[in-house]
Amino acid sequence: SLAQTIPGHRGCVNCICLRADKNGVITGGNDGLVIIWDSTFKKVGEFSIVNNKTISSYSPRVRSICESGENKLIGTRGGEIVELKRDKPRNLLKSHFKDELWGLAIHPKKPEYATFGQDSLFSVWDIALKRQKRFAKIDYPGNVLAYSP
Questions:
Q1: DSSP string spanning 68-82?
Q2: Which of 45, 44, 79 lies closest to 61, judged by CA?
Q3: Residue 82: which of 32, 138, 118 has the closest Cα?
């Protein structure tokens, strides 16, 4: 039988991570909240990715989370990987997250390529550094992509 309920997320919890110091857990849910709990399940911290201008997630549901020291990495349904360090968020990556990726083009002269998908996300990637250089949300889904020399 259920002995107690603890208010936390509004909706389902998608991920639970044991704290790096083994004293509590961190949870992430469909409500876009990351909640830090101590070992007695008392809330000791909370961070929302919903309507956060630094993150600007296309689908701010927390899907995964991990912690190392002061750093937390948050994976979202919107395809973002967010670093949370001392409660300051930083987007590490914004990738495609919905339907199919149709557009792929390699730059004819620069070490980069671009992607454009059915999720309306246009991204430019650095081949040498293996990371995203820039991205933009376009008003329509993408099917074709090409560089003009």
A1: ETTEEEEEETTSEEE
A2: 79
A3: 32
Distance, in Å, from the CA atom of 51 to the CA atom of 72, rounded to the nearest integer, reads 19
What is the pTM assigned to this prediction? 0.76
Contact 80, 61 (CB under 8 A): no
The model's pLDDT over 6-26, given as tens digits with 9 standing for 90+, comes to 899 999 999 999 998 999 999
Separation in Å, CA 33 to CA 40, 41, 54, 58:
19, 16, 15, 15
Can you list the pairs that 89-96 forms with residues at least 24 positions away whose Cβ atoms lie under 8 Å? 89/47, 89/49, 89/52, 89/54, 89/55, 90/54, 91/54, 91/55, 93/131, 93/132, 94/121, 94/123, 94/132, 94/135, 95/121, 95/123, 95/132, 96/121, 96/123
Q: Which two tokens stand for residue 149?
A: 């020399």
pLDDT band at 65 (very low <50, low <70, confident <90, very high): very high
As given in the structure block, the two tokens for residue 58 are: 């296309």
